[in-house]
């Protein structure tokens, strides 16, 4: 992190009971089983705004973690991302209760019609006054494909080709259909919109076709802030072109691995005609914090009593597409699937490189219900470690995972945020404006001129 | 209306500037141009709850009213349902600000994946505590089809065959996948859900296929309250099987036409093994009310200064699929399209049966910006007319269209609601419970046992 730069911070969450730290819903203070009430979400949003979080990042998965044991039973038993509700629904209630907090919501383009998705995000952008981001995913679960009537999911690289085509289409709707001054709202003339300034979008791509005007007038950001999380080579290419924010898994605070990915992503962005810091990079982190280091260690032990390593293993099996129930406890794991393997091996090998991976070792690592190792300490210690990690790796901020909710967020707001602020590495107040302006500065409400999507903006004749 | 029966009441609205009474956004008091702010929606919801409205009915259209003149220009000019935002997005903010008001939201099944739509409505039902209805539409605009990459829309009857298949699929998810007591939430055993009580849904219909469990735990109503609006013969068959509430266009208070449709709908319901009053029938109505009849007439004249008959004609052209810009002002209209023609002719012929229809006559009828003739009078007069119309036709309630918003709703709440209450034909307080319980009585949170969809409920072995 450069001097003067402020750490960015999202809460990482899901409209479900278990998200990352599985089993924690059994903790007496954990409120995640109330995920289906609006009070739960509004209260969370207020807590995050109190802590000046930039955003609430709402992950999502369509389908169930049904690789472990070849059925959804283990996931159902432990509430491992199932049941799971639609992440978009609670947003307007949270937006109404807050002023600055943004909402970065996941939508899977493989299964959503682009014309409707474009309208949905324009509406969100309008109603939140520009506090919306889209986490672009293409999905990885066969169970989702079967739920859509396909026999198996579309091949990985092909999904990204479809995603490129999809993005071209929605850029045309968001950027190119309505001119900035198309809407006149003139009660005197009775002309609400100047039809000459609304352009028909024609798209005839390899996967998607459309002939229509966009249904929404220009929203504060037009294109929502684009988030993306893939770290495969094809995923990084996609991100270098489209993403304004990238979410990386924790890699368990491994500086070397993280830095090499960060450097590569920024290089690819520059190769795409963008500036290196046109991409904001967030790393996932699990924090257990208390007033003292001893208190935090005690809290960790207390949390571990409720965590479910079995839940973690169920989730991990689906993430890597490998049924780990078929291994004996001490049998070396020989992974067949290459899916997401690079990042995953990076993230687990730091724990004890060299020794062969077994289910027993995984279970040991998953003492908080996931493969993510927590950062444990006093507020001051955690703040130091986060700042150092950001400085050494060149990332821009963190996606804070919950352990016990809302306690994890309250603890962070009460104990870590003031320490970060004291160090001058975290904002003491929100900047005005849309999410994109908060991230990239004043007058940056719209896609940067260096961004690929900007070419789809309507330009006057002769400048098109 | 039977004695003791209470009138039901929805506000009819759309996430757009112009909805039915076109041009009224030019009125100095009209706030519809603020449709893209949450304050607008939350304030409206509070007004409706003050008036003990049963629900806010959110219409929607995907595509533009581009039949008139063969382009969307006229619709854009006058804000005739374009721009239009996604109706689902503001619901959670309104639900958080109210306790009893329900939300009947339109979703077009032709363009939404059933697996995702099922999750979206389950989520809405959870977060609103069962205050959600789904207005099932199949769409009627070619422009929507072109926006989806099709060259023209799917044929009318075929759309209903698809809808039948779609409904079977979502019933299986909502009713059949999770048993009532599947979720244990047991912090002691660590078992959130009993996997034995979650059933895999297999659907292999002519149009839709799926193999998955539903992603959501059972919501208060399971299946949202089902609204439907088609009055073609095929549409009525569909409604008699699926709909719990039917929305009919105003027919301009024509008792005979309305009663014959109502009787036919109830007959069809009974033929489907249901009770005649298992279907609640709502009729659209435009009301202009003031303290006195003279005041109301004056208000009508004032409103008419702002209305746009051209906007009404633009909307009407799209509704009937006929470009009325091709007719000279006094040339008799010879309609080519049969689409929705029955209901539409019913609704206009009352005005002046016999004389041939011309654009001039239509424009005269559209003095409030739509083909709907307003009911004008003092609160007492309007209450009498509404009660009499309901009694004579056998309908259950009204969908109140807005002229100037929120004034139309405020006027109705302040002037008509107390009169209805005095007459004993309108509730003085909300009943407890979900929307379905409010409509059909205590312990009726779920689909009636007489409803077609109920057969998809999971039943124990031997009773399946």
Features:
homodimer; alpha/beta; TIM Barrel; 8-stranded parallel beta barrel; 15 helices; globular
Walkthrough of the structure:
- The structure is a homodimer of 464-residue chains.
- Chain A has 464 residues and is α/β, with parallel strands linked by helices.
- Chain A has one domain: TIM Barrel (Alpha-Beta Barrel).
- Helix content of chain A is 37%, strand content 15%.
- Chain A has 15 helices and 13 strands.
- The first copy, chain A, has helices at 38-50, 73-78, 91-96, 114-127, 142-147, 156-176, 233-242, 255-271, 293-304, 309-320, 341-349, 359-365, 379-393, 407-422, 435-440; strands spanning 8-14, 55-59, 102-108, 132-137, 183-186, 191-193, 201-204, 209-212, 225-228, 245-248, 280-290, 375-378, 397-401.
- Chain A has an 8-stranded parallel barrel, surrounded by 4 helices. The first copy, chain A, has a two-stranded antiparallel sheet with strand order 5-6. A two-stranded antiparallel ribbon of chain A has the order 7-8.
- In chain A, helix 1 links the parallel strand 1 (8-14) and strand 2 (55-59).
- In chain A, helix 10 crosses helix 12 (359-365) and helix 13 crosses helix 14.
- The first copy, chain A, is globular.
- Chain A starts with 7 loop residues before the first strand and ends in a 24-residue tail after the last helix.
- The interface between A and B is large, with 80 and 80 residues.
- Chains A, B: Pfam families: Bac_luciferase (PF00296).
